């Protein structure tokens, strides 16, 4: 091989590594900022609750909770509005369009990157139920594009259009991989969601960049956060290796069916909301004239509903929405007595406390809390995603699916406290149902099967791949039959230019 | 959706499920047969060793060992020769050609299927170091093709050429998935190895069929074999969740480099052997005239080398070649004292016995045994794959890579008995190095990155995905630089028709 080719290969590797590592650093810095901002909100609440009179406490904490959320959401919306409105929303639908060859103006500029990074940090910091994955995909694609442009200046080959598209595809993979520190699932998900036809030759590019990113991400977590766990997965689970019986597979299939219909409902709600805003005469007049009013109204609704001493007391304990996943995936059973040496499968009292006794209220029935939690956030995350701020919906849907799955698993466990009759004596592990539910609902909304792999990587366990695949495929089948995926739905809503799909070959 | 479309979708799903389940049953039946045949060889050896005189024992056991191997290999070669010689070899290179649109005569007929099933069962039953994956891909593709033809009879849509190609691609995925009961890795590996451009729309098809197959496969293992482990992975490992430190990553990278060069060596040896047979005047004259002589000679060489009381005593204990994987992946350290409550990381004496004291000989140094084992089988599997019988090379290479990785890990462990200085106090786990080595060597030979996923699925653990990806990508980079993949190499050797690759875009 001539020297020029070797040099070009090395440069290529270097760029991919830079992309992966750069995005990992960015993701980590943002996570850290968001953590600080949410801790500050907690602090503010504590300070506001010190007046001594319970009436004033109630008022002040509510005002500080509402004010903080409003402030961050408004800041986010204004920053994005004035710096680069291209940063609004998820970004995956736009990337899908761009990867099919359409050029969207100013979508991949440095200005948009800044707008998205700041806007997303602010909006996530406010604690509203939105996700980080879609925006991360957009950001990684921008970084990939900027790197390509940089290379173009001193190397002609990067002027090649197809090379640019390859870099963008790698960027999408890195974006997903960095969000969940899931290199394999990230590559697959980005392929499934953004492209129609895929050149296998480029497979390793996304893989390599994502691996670099994930490695740096995990090593940094060890060094920066001094976490006692070294290279663990983000939501490491601890189920035994034979955590479920073949007899339970029909239950997992049932989760798939439910998740399929729930996904259809979610997409319908989201589309309904957007269409209402666009077509209702009053909404059109009011919100379109004063663009900032809509985020204010939505933030007000969301903050009021989630206010921890109000209805929020039913929305479980952990402060940050996504952190509830630790509780939902926990390896214990509600229906058994509290954890003790005699009851190894019972939940600890802290965990129960965080679900049943919130902010000094309660105890409430844990099944009711879980139902309210899941249902409320299903609608709230659809609502939040209609705001003109950078936001994703994968993570909230994932959490909602996990909560529904957990609920289902707990009911199965309550019905069969000694495990499925006829099998071995081991009890049901509702945590596994939660993982399956999370994957099934996200799969049903995004129309992707690789969520199963993301789930395994996020939890660091591989034992439930078969229930996962079963539920994911069934959920996909149900939702594909009724509705296009959320990304295709947004493409239609936003009137983004796109090529029609090739009709399925069975229509021959 | 009109009723006709729904019906067609249902039929499609049914066919995919039938494909997956059918192949799982076939794979299981073959495994069972092979198991019986290998147990019988063991029995024969025991019977032959009862003469009372050690000299006669030696002779009789050698003759029975040699005779059994020869018999099965000759039967396999003759069956394949007379029934359908298309069944010879792996099948993956041919599938690659077929999926690019070339029609190879009689490659996908029922006759070839029979020839491949019987031939492969016989050749694997003889215990020579060959694999099952390539032939399984070929068989699954045949089953997929037969199902398509069946459907064509009463439904016009299946006459559609593109539909047939989709079924074939799903077949390839199922073949890989059934061999290792690795549904995700199977789909990815088959995509990487057999196709150039991939329609993402068909992704779920392979996924669905593979999931059906894997589910049935695992459930049957529980029911038929009454294995105490329920839905475990094939080579379930038991490493702790934080089994390696970030400081060990350079070692894993080094494994990648070594594996890359070893892969290049393997492909060169294989190509050299085939070219020698074809070009050497004596070999040409002798073997081409009497086609049955070559397998007889090779089986003689292999049986003599692996004869357990001869040189075979250095080739570790477990009778069946692939079963040594259990020992190689085991979670213990040679360099520590034997397992006891005071030495929790030491190996059990049974495990040591099976490596060091074989057939009453020994004890031999375990490092020397591992080196001899890996090196001998590296060459033997190249040799065996030149025989005119159905055979694959993925599994032997995987085992050889695991042995080299283990050896490397043990050396690291011996150098740093208290773990990497500066990290936590936990010791090195050489089993993790074995898993990484296995993935890296197979990746280097097949030029695929999804081996990392297959590895996770085979071992049922996900903790080492980052070292796996690191080593796999480095091994790929090294071997891609020096040589085409083994499949492309066979395509060239066999003069199969193929379309040239599109030149890489950096050659613009």
TrEMBL record, chains A, B:
This is Chloride channel protein. InterPro entries: Cl-channel_core, Cl_channel_volt-gated, ClC. Its main location: membrane. It comes from the Eukaryota. Gene3D superfamilies: Clc chloride channel. CDD domains: ClC_1_like (cd03683). It is a multi-pass membrane protein. The chain crosses the membrane at residues 13-30, 113-131, 168-191, 203-224, 249-270, 291-308, 364-384, 396-416, 428-455, 462-482. One of its GO terms (molecular function) is voltage-gated chloride channel activity. GO terms for cellular component: plasma membrane. The keyword Membrane applies. It is found in: Membrane. Keywords: Membrane, Repeat, Transmembrane, Transmembrane helix. Pfam families: Voltage_CLC.
């Amino acid at each position: 091989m001539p020297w020029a080719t070797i040099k070009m290969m090395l440069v290529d590797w270097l760029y991919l590594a830079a992309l992966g590592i750069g995005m990992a650093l960015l993701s980590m810095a943002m996570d850290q900022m968001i953590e600080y901002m949410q801790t500050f909100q907690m602090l503010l609440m504590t300070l506001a609750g010190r007046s001594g009179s319970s009436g004033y406490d109630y008022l002040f904490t509510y005002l500080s909770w509402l004010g903080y959320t409003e402030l961050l959401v408004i800041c986010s919306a204004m920053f994005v509005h004035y710096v680069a409105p291209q940063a609004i929303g998820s970004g995956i639908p736009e990337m899908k369009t761009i990867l099919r060859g359409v050029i969207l103006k100013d979508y991949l500029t440095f200005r948009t990157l800044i707008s998205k990074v700041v806007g997303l940090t602010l909006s996530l910091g406010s604690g509203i139920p939105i996700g980080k994955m879609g925006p991360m995909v957009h950001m990684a694609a921008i970084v990939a594009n900027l790197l390509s442009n940089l290379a173009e200046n001193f190397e002609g080959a990067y002027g090649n259009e197809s090379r640019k598209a390859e870099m963008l595809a790698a960027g999408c993979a890195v974006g997903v991989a960095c969000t969940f520190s899931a290199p394999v699932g990230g590559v697959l998900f980005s392929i499934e969601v953004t492209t129609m036809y895929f050149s296998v030759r480029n497979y390793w590019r996304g893989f390599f960049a994502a691996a670099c990113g994930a490695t740096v991400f995990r090593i940094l977590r060890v060094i920066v956060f001094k976490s006692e766990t070294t290279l663990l997965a983000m939501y490491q689970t601890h189920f035994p290796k034979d955590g479920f019986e073949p007899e339970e597979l029909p239950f997992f299939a049932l989760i798939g069916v439910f998740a399929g219909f729930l996904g259809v409902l979610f997409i319908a709600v989201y589309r309904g909301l957007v269409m209402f805003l666009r077509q209702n005469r009053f909404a059109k007049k009011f919100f379109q004239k004063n663009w900032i009013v809509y985020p204010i109204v939505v933030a007000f609704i969301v903050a009021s509903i989630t206010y921890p001493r109000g209805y929020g007391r039913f929305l479980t304990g952990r402060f940050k929405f996504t952190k509830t996943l630790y509780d939902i995936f926990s390896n214990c059973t509600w229906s058994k007595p509290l954890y003790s040496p005699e009851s190894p499968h019972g939940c600890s009292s802290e965990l129960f406390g965080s679900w049943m006794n919130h902010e000094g209220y309660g105890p409430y029935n844990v099944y009711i809390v879980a139902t309210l939690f899941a249902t409320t956030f299903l609608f709230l995350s659809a609502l939040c995603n209609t705001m003109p701020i950078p936001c994703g919906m994968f993570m909230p849907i994932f959490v909602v699916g996990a909560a529904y799955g957990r609920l289902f698993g707990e009911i199965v466990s309550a019905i069969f406290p000694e495990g499925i009759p006829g099998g071995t004596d081991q009890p049901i592990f509702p945590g596994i149902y939660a993982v399956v539910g999370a994957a099934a609902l996200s799969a049903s909304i995004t129309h992707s099967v690789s969520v199963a792999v993301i789930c395994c990587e996020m939890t660091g366990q591989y034992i439930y791949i078969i229930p996962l695949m079963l539920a994911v495929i069934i959920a996909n089948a149900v939702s594909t039959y009724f509705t296009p995926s959320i990304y295709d739905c947004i493409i239609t809503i936003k009137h983004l230019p796109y090529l029609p799909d090739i009709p399925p070959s069975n229509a021959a």
